[in-house]
Write a structure and sequence with these properties.
A nine-stranded antiparallel beta sheet has the order 1-2-3-9-8-7-6-5-4. Helix 1 packs across helix 6. It has one domain: START domain (Alpha-D-Glucose-1,6-Bisphosphate, Chain A, domain 4). It is of the alpha+beta class and about 190 residues long. It is globular and about 45 Å long. The protein contains six helices and nine strands. The N terminus and C terminus are likely disordered. Strand 4 and strand 5 form a beta hairpin.
Length: about 190
């Protein structure tokens, strides 16, 4: 695994995971293009009523001020599976609506994952031509190797979920169509 570089292409989203066995640093970068305005993408990222409608249906409650805390609350389905009352938490570092959002991020689903500590997530939203917005998510997972595997989707077959690929595919589907990825019918507004 030394010098491993893994490229994952799924649903038009590409990610690069570079890690090495002897290194404590890992950064994952995901880029996707969404047929929507930067403002619509921003709202889907920061509005708790919207975050609960895509990805893992985690309701992320953000206080959009630098230094403020945030918390992600599990869906009812996740709670039935035994997920604790909070799935992630962190602190807001930068807020530049609708272009840039930076926060720390700690996975709380198990004590082992929580013990890997806080990582850093940067959302960059760039309006483009033809009504298309480019969204880049950069997740610095330094010193969090198990969380890095979970976030990359590498543990999906073991029940770890599809990571950021699943979340971002769901965000794109939701913003563009108003439907929930994997649902039989759209959620009504």
């Amino acid at each position: 695994m030394l010098g491993l570089e893994k490229r994952v292409i799924a649903s038009g989203i590409s990610s690069t995971l570079e890690d090495s066995l002897g290194s404590a640093s890992c950064t994952q970068v995901y880029r996707l293009y969404i047929h929507a305005t930067p403002e619509a993408v921003w709202e889907a990222i920061v509005d708790p009523d919207l975050t609960a409608r895509y990805g893992y249906r985690v309701r992320c409650a953000y206080d959009l001020r630098p230094g403020a805390a945030f918390m992600g609350f599990p869906s009812e389905e996740m709670r039935r599976l035994g997920v604790p009352n909070a799935t992630v938490d962190g602190v807001i570092l930068e807020v530049e609506p609708p272009r840039r959002f930076v926060h720390t991020w700690r996975m709380l689903i198990t004590p082992d994952l929580a013990s890997e500590g806080f990582t850093r997530v940067t959302w960059e939203i760039d309006g483009g031509r033809f009504g298309v917005t480019r969204l880049t998510l950069t997740h610095d997972l330094t010193a969090a190797p198990t969380v890095a595997l979970m976030a990359s989707g590498a543990m999906e077959d073991e029940g770890g979920g599809g990571g950021w690929n699943w979340v971002l595919s769901g965000l794109k589907t939701f913003v563009e169509s108003g439907t929930t990825l994997g649902a039989e019918r759209p959620h009504l507004a």
